[in-house]
Amino acid sequence: MNSTTVYTSGVIVMIETERLLLREFTPDDANAFLTLCSDPVITRYTGGPAMATLDDARKGLLERPIADYRKHGYGRWACVLKATGQVIGFTGLKFLDELGEVDLGYRFLPDYWGQGLATEASRPCIDFGFHRLKLGRILGLVDLDNGASVRVLVKLGFAFVEMIEYFHGQVAKYEIVRT
Ligand SMILES: CC(C)(COP(=O)(O)OP(=O)(O)OC[C@H]1O[C@@H](n2cnc3c(N)ncnc32)[C@H](O)[C@@H]1OP(=O)(O)O)[C@@H](O)C(=O)NCCC(=O)NCCS
């Protein structure tokens, strides 16, 4: 059964899965974005700029995902739990200027870990990359100590390529190739 629906209206992308709605972030999502970027349990393996206030989060939204939508037409998308309407994470593709390639990223609130949500949210993002953006491959960059993230990549069909130097140190480069 295909439980994913993709709606596009101009550059706005909305994807519906069984339990989630994926949509573009807006500055009104600052509260959720702040938690996702400042809770040390969530950011243990992710790096990224320090964020302490709602103003930091609004600025972060404007400079990162919202800037990416404007520049590329896609970026990390907010994941809304359909049952409650709450933003519980993000997932999606991002163009990495440093590598000239696109990677998949995801982050969820710990209360929602271990329910298959990152995998569910990421599958349609990969389809979007291959079928709408016509990408040849999508990367996944991960700290090998981040077992849950590695497992998500493997469940999605990514394969290990090599270790690379990236910002804070060595990360594993995984890839999935369009077939
Ligand atoms: C990575 C993350 C998004 C996974 O979200 P999730 O919704 O729990 O992912 P899923 O439920 O789809 O899959 C998680 C898988 O990892 C497994 N897992 C969990 N912890 C693990 C660990 N320490 N080592 C190995 N596997 C682990 C789970 O059992 C599950 O696999 P299974 O379905 O075969 O049982 C979530 O842990 C998170 O937000 N982490 C913080 C942010 C982050 O690190 N993002 C990735 C940066 S590269």
SSE layout and pairing:
Blueprint: E1 5-9, E2 12-16, E3 20-23, H1 30-38, H2 54-63, H3 65-72, E4 76-81, E5 86-96, E6 101-108, H4 117-132, E7 137-142, H5 147-156, E8 159-166, E9 169-177
Antiparallel strand pairs: 1-2, 2-3, 3-4, 4-5, 5-6, 7-9, 8-9
Helix pairs in contact: 1-2, 2-3, 4-5
The structure holds coenzyme A.
Residues 42, 45-46, 106-108, 113-119, 142, 146-149, 151-152 line the site of coenzyme A.
Supply database-style keywords.
single chain, 179 residues, Aminopeptidase, 6-stranded antiparallel sheet, 3-stranded antiparallel sheet, 35% strand
Task: Give an overview in words.
30% of the residues are buried. The chain contains five helices and nine strands, in the order βββαααβββαβαββ. A hairpin with a 4-residue loop joins strand 5 and strand 6. It has a single domain (5-135), classed as Gcn5-related N-acetyltransferase (GNAT) (Aminopeptidase, 3-Layer(aba) Sandwich), CATH 3.40.630.30. Strands 1-2-3-4-5-6 form a six-stranded antiparallel sheet, with helices on both faces. A three-stranded antiparallel sheet has the order 7-9-8. With 179 residues, the protein is an alpha+beta fold. Helix 4 (117-132) packs across helix 5. The structure holds coenzyme A.
